[in-house]
Amino acid sequence: SGGEGRKEVKSTSFTFEQIGGQNRAKQELIEALDFLVKRDQIEKLGIRPLKGILLAGPPGTGKTLLAKAAAQYTDSVYMAASGSEFVEMYVGVGAGRIRDLFKEARAKAKKAGKSSAVIFIDEIEVIGGKRDGGQHREYDQTLNQLLTEMDGIHGNESPRILIIAATNRKEMLDSALVRPGRFDRHIGVDLPDKKGRLQILRIHASNKPIDESVDLTGIAEQTFSFSGAQLESVMNEAAIYALRDNADSITSGHLHMAIDKVMLGEKSDKETSL
Ligand code: ATP
């Protein structure tokens, strides 16, 4: 998920096929992205250029993955940032960072010979939360800078910038951010259903020796309300249990222990990944 900030600029070729479930979100996103891909046609028809897409939904459901796949689909360079990176004690620093982010994205696209750049901003609510009468003035400047940058995006400029933002708390966003011409495409990214969970489990099982006796459909049934990130954890923890057992493959027993562990609290997961 977020947090890694702008270090994560490697041109990962990550595709929609590597994202399990989320069929509706993928379809809606691809439809929106086709605006960027077919930009000559869009311009001829006088359609307002697409500037911002908002991905809204619970943590760990694949919003970051969708943004990466969007960059790949549109043959764009990818830059990632998190709303919390722009929160600084000193007025103006956050705004400066926003300016730099856009500058950097344009430079990176030019250098790579690409005609577009996708800027992913995770936790957008941190900078784009509802403004409350001057209480958080330094945030205001940051948000204003983002709005200015968005207003400055033109359909015919090169490189073309598309901003994809993610939030778990859409209701908190300032209305200035979600009005037409800004983040006006909203795509819900929900917890996966059973079929989605099975697909996600399969994706994360693909590089692991799973015992023949394992019924992944059953595991998908038993992981109701798990997010993609939690399912990834289940697979990883199961592999760690297998290692502890000195087993060459992951059994249902390992998977069940992993489910319990992830259910009990995934806080310690990251630290136990050996
Ligand atoms: P956050 O809101 O916490 O930033 P997010 O919605 O951006 O979360 P991701 O960072 O995309 O979630 O997902 C975290 C990890 O969980 C991914 O790197 C991947 O391993 C796994 N994952 C999540 N959703 C899926 C999915 N739909 N298919 C496959 N893997 C997934």
TrEMBL record:
<dbReference type="GO" id="GO:0004176">
    <property type="term" value="F:ATP-dependent peptidase activity"/>
</dbReference>
<dbReference type="GO" id="GO:0005524">
    <property type="term" value="F:ATP binding"/>
</dbReference>
<feature type="domain" description="AAA+ ATPase">
    <location>
        <begin position="49"/>
        <end position="193"/>
    </location>
</feature>
<dbReference type="GO" id="GO:0016020">
    <property type="term" value="C:membrane"/>
</dbReference>
<comment type="similarity">
    <text>In the C-terminal section; belongs to the peptidase M41 family.</text>
</comment>
<keyword id="KW-0482">Metalloprotease</keyword>
<protein>
    <submittedName>
        <fullName>ATPase</fullName>
    </submittedName>
</protein>
<dbReference type="GO" id="GO:0016887">
    <property type="term" value="F:ATP hydrolysis activity"/>
</dbReference>
<keyword id="KW-0472">Membrane</keyword>
<keyword id="KW-0547">Nucleotide-binding</keyword>
<keyword id="KW-0175">Coiled coil</keyword>
<keyword id="KW-1133">Transmembrane helix</keyword>
<keyword id="KW-0812">Transmembrane</keyword>
<comment type="similarity">
    <text>Belongs to the AAA ATPase family.</text>
</comment>
<dbReference type="GO" id="GO:0004222">
    <property type="term" value="F:metalloendopeptidase activity"/>
</dbReference>
<keyword id="KW-0378">Hydrolase</keyword>
<keyword id="KW-0645">Protease</keyword>
<dbReference type="GO" id="GO:0006508">
    <property type="term" value="P:proteolysis"/>
</dbReference>
<keyword id="KW-0067">ATP-binding</keyword>
